[in-house]
Amino acid sequence: MSKLRFLFSAIFIGITLYLPAQSPKTPLSRVINVSGTTQIAPSLSGDGKHMIFISTSNLKSELLVFYSFQQRPGKWTQPEPVAAINRSLPINHIGGYSLSYDGNYIFFTSRKSYGIGKYDIWYSKKTGKNQWSSPTNLAKPVNSALDDGCPSVSPDGRTLYFVRCQSMDQQEGTGCQLMVSEKRNQELWGEPTALPDYINDGNIMSPRILADNQTLIYAKGQGDHWDLYQTRLVSGSWSKPVALDYVNSPGAERFASIPAQGDVIYYSAKFKGDYDIIKAKIPPAMQPNKVLYLKGAVTDNQGAPMEAFIQVYDVDQKKLDQYYRTEQNNSGFELYLAAGRQYDFSIVSLDEGYAFYSEEFDLRDLSVSTRRKMDISLDPLVSGASFQLPCLYFENDSTLSPSSRFELSRVIKLLKNNPGIKVEIAVHREYLPPDTVSTPEVQLLVEAPDDSTFVEEPVITESSLNVLDEALVNSVDSVHQELPSPPRDLTEIQAEVISHYLQQRGVPDYILTVKGYADSEPLVENENSTDSLQNRRIELKVL
Fold first, then answer.
1. How far apart are CA 496 and CA 501, in angstroms?
2. Who is most buried in 13, 99, 248, 375, counting CB within 10 A?
């Protein structure tokens, strides 16, 4: 017991709950903060509903890892020990744990056998309700001959932040630098690199990358004195670190976690004699960037889970921002899109005989972090089936928007992957009074490059996710169209513009039919001008 008291004092001595000008603080309920015991090192999932933490609330008063679920705001389930992690308790680094944003993985730090160095980073995958797989070593090059630990994985699962120390024991590390590694493929991580010297200007521990994938918090200190700091990734460079003075005290603030909502921080502090898990409001200026949190599942039209690729492109940067692959036995997904950008979002089934789903998210003016439930059903490409192309736009009456390149690429891939298919390009518009309907009086000049961007791959693969065909990404050309007389409805012209674009990229003309429906098939009544815009749409119909 004396050893345990020494451990607590070494980590937490001098912590106080209140300092002037600090944010109001509230301890979690007594279901979590059991009186007379210690609770430290909280790590929460992105939605704030799942939490792991360390507690002495057990018969032997050992520091064990516990899991709890937040059923509704402030109401947590009775914590349960995480057996897969606690089996190696005596050789684990205290506080070197983190929960992935989707709540499906626990990453931790241990001197388990068959490692690479001394302390290594390990992970365990969720297999059921508080059931976790046997730990797996993260392997080289993340783990090295030195001590590596305190892992934190980005929301998209593609970036790992951790510390590499000259030495580490169960309590803390010395000579620790903050490192980052990018995932090379589904399994392997790239060579880690150190963050800039102005961040690694002391002994660094406990990094946490936040939901915006741009804000990073970490602890700096030694022994009895630790403070929390924050830096942001702006235009590819990390900002000068700022101390989190709204929670820092003369004691040791070392372990913290911030869910995706970004307005509350969870951390460890002394409260009425015990070390409890506290939550505090984050001042607006210190909050991470706002995010759109998407959670859902992908099924077929019969409700069966589907394997699919989810792709998110940054429209302005013309590059892949995130991707995720759902599994047949688990078609759920969780994604976090940071504010300030415009995204092209799509779901493409691994079964090439199904339509895709697409949507554009314009988050350039997002001011509040938002959650959205997305349960997406994909329909088979059978005769009579039709689906909308909501990310296909015209800048004016008859010029395709540059942002349409992503949607057009998906259409080309779909047609290439389904030999023998024939489709109708159907364009609809809202009702317009007769004196406002006009036909463009200009000829549309087309200078299409001589390319073969009718995609060569028989199916979409992981390798094809990283780069869209260059011609498709970087150019959307107008189409030369001799406008006949008498004037036709604009929807006819737009359908032909799309058809010409596809033909110029290798789609045979004989599989394409075009039709402009004008306002003859409305989805909603045209009386309300806002609702009537739903009638303005482009569809692909299987013939």
1. 8
2. 99
- How many Å apart are CA 363 and CA 256, to the nearest integer? 28
Alpha-carbon distance 294 to 375, whole Å?
A: 10
d(CA 472, CA 193): 34
Closest CA to 406 of 357, 351, 462: 357
Cis omega (within 30 of 0) on the bond before 81? no
* CA–CA gap between residue 399 and residue 475 (Å, rounded): 12
Q: Which two tokens stand for residue 360?
A: 């554009």
Rg over alpha carbons for the chain, rounded to the nearest Å, is: 27
pLDDT along the chain (543 residues), means of 10: 42 40 85 93 96 91 93 95 92 94 96 92 93 94 97 96 96 96 91 98 97 97 92 96 93 91 92 85 96 96 95 95 89 94 97 97 96 96 96 90 95 96 94 61 38 33 41 45 64 95 96 93 73 85 97
What does the alpha-carbon distance between residue 463 and residue 475 come to, in Å, rounded to a whole number?
22
> Distances from the Cα of 434 to the Cαs of 390, 437, 484, 515, 528, in angstroms?
26, 6, 20, 20, 17
What is the rounded CA–CA span in Å between residue 506 and residue 450?
Answer: 10
At residue 452, φ and ψ (nearest 5 deg) are -125, 60
* Backbone phi, psi, residue 436, to 5°: -105, -5
Specify whether the CB–CB gap between 40 and 95 falls below 8 A: yes
| Contact indicator for 48, 261 with CB cutoff of 8 Å | yes
> What angle (nearest 5°) sits at the alpha carbon of residue 227, between those of residues 226 and 233?
130
Residues facing residue 393 across a β-bridge:
none
C-alpha span between 166 and 106 (Å, rounded): 24
Closest by Cα among 303, 403, 410 to 361: 403
CA distance 403 to 393: 8
Structure-block tokens of residue 159: 């970036």
Give the Cα-Cα-Cα angle 117, 122, 126 (nearest 5 degrees): 170
Non-local CB neighbours of 351 within 8 Å, separated by 6+ positions:
306, 307
Closest by alpha carbon to 265, among 238, 289, 240, 288? 288
Q: Write out the two tokens for 470.
A: 């260059």
Q: Quick one: 429 exposed, middle or buried, by C-beta within 10 A (0-12, 13-18, 19+)?
A: buried
Please state, in angstroms and rounded to a whole number, the distance separating the CA atoms of residues 413 and 407. Answer: 10
Element (H, E) at 120: strand 120-128
Tokens of 106: 């626990």
d(CA 28, CA 278): 6
Q: By the 8 A CB rule, do 98 and 50 touch?
A: no
